[in-house]
Design goal:
Elements lengths: L2 E5 L2 H9 L4 E6 L4 H4 L23 E5 L9 E13 L10 E4 L2 E4 L1 E10 L2
Parallel strand pairs: 1-3
Antiparallel strand pairs: 2-7, 3-4, 4-7, 5-6
Protein name: ASCH domain-containing protein
Organism: Sphingobacterium corticis
Length: 119
């Protein structure tokens, strides 16, 4: 079983715990891309036959909240599905890109559809 650990604010933690919040999104950046997507040996994102990024599979997410000292409240939540959301410019409808150390990246989010709270 694969698990991802994420820190979140108490408000969102409580919403997930109560079932009001059913997804979690994170920005995909060059420094975390391998955490959220499958990458090749050079660090480039692997794509499926539809040219969509292949997301890294996690069975559960452990959410932590509170200060980074002492005991932090946590819960483990099932992941039903994960996928990327490519960001588009509202006016031009083109993909939003940015440069990082001479490489061009497409702005994207990873979305985790959450299931039941396990513990």
């Amino acid at each position: 079983m694969s698990n991802l650990t994420l820190s979140i604010k108490q408000t969102y933690f409580d919403q997930i715990k109560s079932g009001k919040k059913t997804f979690e999104e994170r920005e995909i950046r060059p420094n975390n891309i391998a955490r959220y997507c499958e990458v090749d040996d050079e660090g480039f994102v692997l794509e499926n036959e539809d040219n969509e990024p292949i997301t890294r599979h996690y069975d559960t997410i452990t959410f932590l909240t509170g200060a980074y000292k002492g005991t932090r409240e946590k819960m483990i939540v099932e992941v039903k599905e994960s996928y990327t959301i490519i960001l588009y410019d509202e006016e031009t409808k083109e993909e939003v890109t940015y440069d990082h150390n001479g490489e061009t990246y497409t702005a994207a989010l990873i979305r985790y559809e959450l299931g039941k709270v396990i513990s």
